[in-house]
Write a structure and sequence with these properties.
alpha+beta, elongated
């Protein structure tokens, strides 16, 4: 009767072997360290950037669900006031009472010809209920001079870019000309109550914010608005809120209603929805590069330990066991590199998550669709995942040198 085969402590042997050449282990682990740190920080940065873009898009453009009159979106380039929503203020009040809805705000958007101090240019008129917009458009956070327009007064908060081009400042007057809901010419002379800086050049060069009642008066939209934006308590519940809003507005808007979720209103948002798959390819390439370094250094280790592997083979260690030993050694080194890399990446991500990364200098030159300060968002899953992926990548990379070690002939190896 044959003696049962002894269990080989592969993991313990792999750990011991990883300590035998500190320099080689450090070199092998360093590649995984860099890749793991890049994965943790990169994913944190992308999460923060995507949250920034999505949050800015929800707040300033679409809400989580946007309600418009049928046909408005098809003619959106002209922002037609004649396709407005009658009774939009009352509708917004009713939608705000729906389960899962945080708020519903009526807004007016219209093009305006603006005449200033001897200059005129086109701008975008925004009629906002400033009391409701504190947590959404957040005009109070954009003030750089003056104050917000007051309800019931012909005043405007003007983007500093368009103000500069018109040659006006706080206290000066502007004349706004618009096409009303009856397709006639309407206008209003307003005082510049304040100057605003959003950090987004395309807004600062066109933005004219007036109180909702003033925009309604100017465009002959008493009680109406061009859109109602609905904000969910949780963005993940947008589908549920969308269905409730569709039911609530049925039959209330003459000519029919367009009720759309935020992701269906922008090609950019649809692209961002698939960003995880695209970024997974980038992280995979990083780990592949780290794996190539592991292959190289583990091959060096196999060549240096030829006699050792020959001795183990002569003592009865099977080829499969030799492969497993080298693979587990690679995985141990990969895990060590992953831990260090995850720690470094986490430290950078957490620090920048508090201080932020300021892109203000770039946002002034480009029409960036987000707030100029990005706050990377750290997650446990990224840190733990980078360690696991580092160990997996290094272990898989060690298959090649492991296979080479298994092919060594004991007699030849012992003579080396």
């Amino acid at each position: 009767m044959s003696e049962p085969r002894r269990k080989v402590p592969f993991l313990r042997l792999a750990w011991r072997n990883a300590h035998r050449s500190v320099r080689r282990t450090a070199l092998t682990a360093s590649a995984v360290t860099v890749a793991a740190a890049a994965v943790v920080f990169g994913r944190g940065y992308m999460r923060g950037a995507l949250d920034n873009i999505s949050d800015t898009f929800w707040r300033t453009e679409t809400g989580h669900v946007r309600v418009r009159r049928e046909g408005f979106t098809a003619r959106e380039r002209s922002l037609p006031a004649y396709l407005s929503i009658p009774g939009a203020v009352d509708l917004a009040r009713d939608l705000a009472r729906l389960p899962g809805v945080r708020a519903a705000v009526p807004r007016i958007r219209s093009f305006a010809l603006v005449d200033g101090a001897g200059a005129n240019r086109g701008g975008v008129l925004l009629g906002l209920d400033l009391a409701l917009e504190t947590d959404f458009w957040r005009p109070q956070g954009m003030l750089v001079a003056g104050r917000l327009p007051a309800q019931g007064r012909a005043e405007a908060l003007v983007g500093e870019g368009i103000a500069r081009k018109l040659g006006v400042g706080v206290g000066d007057s502007l004349t706004l000309l618009v096409q009303t809901s009856y397709r006639s010419l309407g206008g209003l002379r307003v005082a510049v109550a304040g100057l605003a800086r959003s950090g987004m050049a395309f807004l600062d060069n066109a933005m004219l914010i007036v109180a909702l009642d003033q925009a309604q008066s100017m465009l002959d939209l008493e009680g109406g608005a061009t859109e109602v934006l609905v904000f969910a308590e949780d963005a993940d519940d947008t589908d549920v809120v969308l269905a409730r809003v569709q039911e609530a507005v049925r039959g209330r808007i003459p000519g029919g209603a367009e009720v759309r979720a935020w992701w269906a209103q922008s090609q950019l948002m649809r692209l961002l929805a698939s960003s995880d798959a695209m970024m997974a390819i980038v992280w995979g390439l990083l780990l592949l590069m780290a794996g190539l370094v592991v292959v190289n250094t583990m091959l060096m280790a196999v060549m240096e330990r030829t006699r050792e592997f020959g001795t183990q083979a002569a003592l009865g260690m099977r080829r499969a066991d030799l492969v497993r030993l080298v693979v587990e050694e690679g995985a141990v080194i990969g895990a060590l590199g992953g831990v260090v890399g995850a720690a470094i990446g986490s430290a950078i991500t957490l620090y920048l998550g508090v201080t932020g990364i300021d892109f203000s200098a770039y946002s002034r030159a480009m029409a960036l669709p987000f707030s100029p300060v990005v706050y990377p968002a750290w997650a446990w899953a990224d840190a733990l995942g980078s360690v696991a992926l580092g160990a997996l990548a290094a272990g898989l990379a060690a298959l090649v040198p492991g296979w080479r070690a298994a092919r060594l002939q004991p007699a030849e190896a012992l003579r080396t």
